[in-house]
Design a protein that fits this description.
144 residues; alpha/beta; Rossmann fold; 5-stranded parallel β-sheet; globular
Amino acid sequence: MSNQQPLAGRKKVLVVDDNEIVRKAVSLKLEASGYEAFTAADGSAVVRVVDQEKPDLILLDILFPPDDAMGGMSWDGFAILRWLRGMSENKNVPVIIISGTDPAKYKERCLQAGASAFLHKPLNMDELIATVRLTFGESPVDIP
């Protein structure tokens, strides 16, 4: 018998990254740690998944390639964060930035834009899960 919470009681985490390997690896780690994970590869998918799944937390990359569904325009993480903060039902959903960009250049800007934390890729999965747990007010060493 598993120690994991039933699906209905699990926190929902949305992983937003254009890299499929990152989305899959992070999702698997979140699921193994007792969370329900959803993914989105671009801004259009974020809008759809946030509307359908109502995540409790969003892990968000900053840089995305042009979005063909939007005529080649692209939503960067800052645009997605502004959209989330502008929607009353999403404005309090915590966002953790996961990015391979230079932390010296982006970390402070991300935090000022409303992100809860900034994690640099390649991600340390233990640090990621500890940060997710702290963001939810859980002990960073809880064992699911």
